[in-house]
Write a structure and sequence with these properties.
With 364 residues, the chain is of the alpha+beta class. It has three domains: 91 residues; 96 residues, Pnp Oxidase, Chain A (Roll); 110 residues, Thrombin, subunit H (Beta Barrel), CATH 2.40.10.220. The chain has seven helices and 14 strands. It has a six-stranded antiparallel barrel. Helix 5 runs antiparallel to helix 6. The radius of gyration is 31 Å and the shape is globular. The relative contact order is 0.09.
């Protein structure tokens, strides 16, 4: 009798080719379902509220940062500050302005007191911190705006553009239920004048930290409100959002000097251009507001649109700032002179950071 261990038993029959293919298809289908489910879950995770996002890892944090427009160097700084500041809910950084400001201010404070960092590297890191603030703010503003003049607040600056031409500055004095009361425009002599009832006008204005708007309206009449002669214009619910500011702007109210720049081309065979600052043509102005990208200046001696200039002013204390810019547009004032809107073309990282610090109130 053969030993039991030598006996061969066949409990299962050999699988056929079709069965192998069926089994492989089932496994592949199951794997595909798992992969699709993971992608859907990941996509939904990006749009969860901050409390739900706390359990997600570094990858999700970086993904959200990229969606806002932050680059690698930005979220590396953010992650470092979050870790150092021991932020319990990191994802709130993207929706809570107060939390973001607290974290970034601590980063600025640390940089300003670290004397071992070279000055150039310190300014570079500060620029990145301010860029984070600007990018997050711009992302949060997307889609935000107003659709009706009923939401305009008293004090809002306006510009009337009648059909006959010209541009006349004004301000909202009172926002009433059926109409908008604005300070009556004045002529070049500084005298009040009146448009006829029914005159069609285009009205334009800038909203702080938002965008430029315009709307069509018509004159309903005149009245004295709060001691001022006001033009009454019809409300509009069809505002046109024309341009969005890329950087926040803040009032400054500081005297300044500016110099026109002349571009001189060489007369030789190889033409080269040289910028010459016209120091003998110094002009006086008053800075109305400033942003990291430009400023507005009121002056009795404005430069023509497109003119290059050098600008000098003080930002607090006795720190004098020198910036090069270009006149983008000018707007005549009711009395004398004009308001020049300047786009900065060249400034150092140090000066740029000082402006950022002033605009976002990060001075420590």
């Amino acid at each position: 009798m053969l030993p039991l261990l030598a006996t061969k038993y066949q409990f299962f029959s050999s699988p056929s080719g079709s069965m192998i293919w069926i089994f492989a298809s089932v496994i592949a289908g199951f794997a595909l379902i798992l992969a699709v489910g993971a992608l859907i879950s990941r996509h939904r995770g990006v749009h969860l509220n901050p409390a739900q996002k706390r359990r997600y890892n570094r990858y999700v944090f970086q993904r959200m940062a990229k969606e806002m427009g932050l680059q690698k160097q930005h979220f590396e700084i953010l992650e470092y500050l979050i870790r150092v500041c021991k932020v319990m809910q990191p994802f709130l950084i993207f929706s809570n302005t107060g939390l973001l400001d607290d974290v970034l201010k601590k980063g600025i404070y640390t940089l300003e007191r670290d004397r071992e960092i070279p000055e150039q590297e310190r300014e570079r890191r500060m620029s990145l911190i301010f860029q984070i603030r600007q990018i997050v703010e711009n992302h949060s503003r997307k889609g935000i705006g107003i659709r009706s003049t009923n939401l305009l607040k008293p004090g809002q600056s306006l510009a009337f553009i009648p059909e006959a031409g010209g541009q006349f500055p004004s301000k909202v004095v009172s926002n009433m239920r059926d109409m908008l009361a604005c300070s009556a425009p004045r002529d070049q002599a500084g005298q009040d004048f009146r448009w006829k009832k029914g005159t069609l006008v285009k009205v334009g204005f800038w909203r702080d930290t938002d965008a430029g708007y315009s709307f069509q309206s018509k004159v309903l009449g005149y009245d004295t409100i709060k001691g001022l002669l006001c033009v009454l214009v019809q409300h509009s619910k069809t505002l046109r959002r024309e341009q969005q500011r890329k950087t926040r702007r803040k009032p400054l109210r500081r005297p300044c000097f500016f110099y026109p720049i002349q571009i001189v081309e060489s007369a030789g065979g190889r033409k080269t251009a040289k910028a010459i600052i016209q120091y003998n043509q110094r002009r006086l102005g008053n800075l109305l507001d400033i942003s990291p990208g430009g400023c507005s200046i009121t002056t009795l001696s404005p430069l023509n649109m497109g003119t290059l200039l050098k600008l000098e002013f003080e930002m607090g204390g006795k720190e004098r700032i020198n910036i090069f810019g270009k006149v983008k547009r000018t707007r005549a004032q009711a009395a004398r002179g004009a308001i020049m809107h300047i786009m900065f073309t060249k400034l150092s990282s140090q000066y740029l950071n000082r402006i950022y610090s002033y605009v976002y109130e990060y001075t420590v």
